[in-house]
Amino acid sequence: MKIKKAVIPVAGLGTRFLPASKAIPKEMLTIVDRPTIQYIVEEIVASGIEEIILVTSEGKSAIENHFDYNFELETILKNKNKHELCEEVCNISNLIDIVSVRQKKPLGLGHAILTTRNVVGDNPFVVLLGDDLVQSDVPCCQQMLDLFDEFQQPVVAIQQVADNQTHQYGIIEGEKIRDRVYEVKRMVEKPAPGTVDSNLAIIGRYILMPEIFDLLANTTPGHGGEIQLTDALQALSKRRPMYAYEFEGTRFDAGDKIGYLKAIIAFALRHPVLADEFRKHLKEVAAGI
Hints:
Blueprint: E1 5-9, E2 30-31, E3 34-35, H1 36-46, E4 51-56, H2 61-66, H3 71-79, H4 83-93, E5 97-102, H5 109-114, H6 117-120, E6 125-128, E7 132-135, H7 140-151, E8 155-160, E9 170-178, E10 181-189, E11 200-208, H8 212-217, H9 229-237, E12 243-246, E13 250-253, H10 257-268, H11 275-288
Parallel strand pairs: 1-4, 1-6, 4-5, 8-12
Antiparallel strand pairs: 2-3, 6-11, 7-13, 8-11, 9-10, 9-11, 10-12
């Protein structure tokens, strides 16, 4: 069964990035030379997905505009003979088919995914959070799709975190069935310290089955008064096997100020044009400390 659709929830207020996110969606803050959300979309495209569903809210039109055709800008670039830059801008609008739905109330990630029910339909789909970047040789999304091809069951991406950080994440407890792969036995959203026997944290990548929608519709608000995806996933894991995959790559929480700065450095050091000069600058800065 081939997965063709990906959901990207981008309706959040971005409070961790205020005041920068007061007028600009946090997903549009740039990592080197492109907005954060474009890296997510490019990962999806590189993984062979055919359609993206954005879950938006008021004030997020800049994201949709970024992936839309801009006749005026492209005409100006052509007239100034900036053909290479014009081609790059044109390619953004041609990356993939994108549709959007509105999350009218901020009721959590689970509710955001529930709003896509009529667009996703009755097939498995991928969810990628709009500020979770993964730098890897093989796209993280593709790694998970490869595992789904094998098991045909839901998959969540995980990474190990420090024990004193488990309360900041959804945590899975499970049975390790081979290197990097676990069968999920229990999931807890932001557990109190000392209440779980695991440091395997759920990161912003999921492969879900369509039955998740019925579970989300019947999930009562949990942590923070929101409809938590983790609660619905726990219920789903009781109906069918669910797997957790410790992906290969480095994850950056670009919705956090320190994570965002780390992402800028990491991606700049792999930039085909800027990397050498930037590396030289970092050495000069380090020498002066």
